[in-house]
Amino acid sequence: MAGNITFTMIKPTAMKKGYMGNIIAKIIEGGFKIKALKMTKMSKEEAMEFYAVHKERPFYNGLTDFMSSGPIIAAVLEKEDAVKAYRDFIGATNPENAAEGTIRALYGTSIEANAVHGSDSDENAIIESSFFFSKREWV
Ligand code: ATP
Ligand code: MG
Questions:
Q1: Which residues form the domain of 96?
Q2: 54: CA distance to ligand 2 center in Å?
Q3: CATH classification of the domain holding 18
Q4: Element (H or E) spanning 35, and its range?
Q5: Cα(135) to centroid(ligand 1), Å
Q6: Who has the most CB within 10 Å: 53, 64, 71, 77?
Q7: Tens digits of per-residue pLDDT, 76-127?
Q8: Which ligand 1 atom sits closest to the C-alpha of 51?
């Protein structure tokens, strides 16, 4: 059975461009309930750990530089079938291919600076949420 939790981050470029409020409002309008939320900044080492699954990919070094380059928002979201619902809601990895009206189409800048992260499985949603939040920080 699909789980009800996913994890998201608002990436540094979207933060710098001032899209934080619009993106959070859109997430709420989309029917996702915010279970935990914080603004923080990852170190290069933390970004490397978070994205360890991609360490063999050619974009790993650039991605982890980028994700540690400025403040981000991290959040745990709840909705029925949350992982798939949120991936559909944010759109394709490359904003150029993202469906109209999705977060990446509206607020993405490039394939790397694509506005938001979304977990790709129930298991990773829990791992990623636990990376940023202690159980006490979930409501
Ligand atoms: P995310 O995991 O951030 O939700 P995703 O699941 O759509 O995105 P992944 O394949 O997991 O995409 O890639 C993780 C992140 O790595 C992407 O969101 C993007 O920022 C970056 N990325 C992916 N492909 C490329 C690429 N070809 N060039 C540069 N960066 C890339
Ligand atoms: Mg992914």
A1: 5-138
A2: 9
A3: 3.30.70.141
A4: strand 33-40
A5: 27
A6: 77
A7: 999 999 999 999 999 999 999 999 999 999 999 999 999 999 999 999 999 9
A8: 14
